[in-house]
Write a structure and sequence with these properties.
Helices cover 80% and strands 0% of the residues. With 131 residues, it is mainly α. The protein contains six helices and no strands.
Length: 131
Amino acid sequence: MNRLQWSLAVAAAYHAVSGLALFAVPGIVLRAINIPPALYEFSLHVLLFRLAGVLSLVVALGAYRLARGDGRNADLAALLLLAKAAAAVTFLYYAARGESVAFMLLAAVVNELIWLPVFGWALRQARRRPA
């Protein structure tokens, strides 16, 4: 397993765990960022976190597939890169509301500064290899 495949396998594991947590128990995350409990049930907050969880699970499956493949799937790498770039929407939503920006900034830094280069690297490698 080369460094790119190892990085993608770690990305798959990270996104699987975080996606499952966001989808299955968004209340824990909402409490951690100081959203009042009265807003947990059937709210936009819960919907956004569950959607982020589903997106994270899809990213996990894609990263796993890239890690196990031969590195020639440029379309999948591009979709994962796009999905990670789109994850910043949650941060922007909470930043615009002025709610828990420090926590969300930490999450955005972890997600974007760590995983965007990995998926960019995967896209670059996939585009270099003939189909």
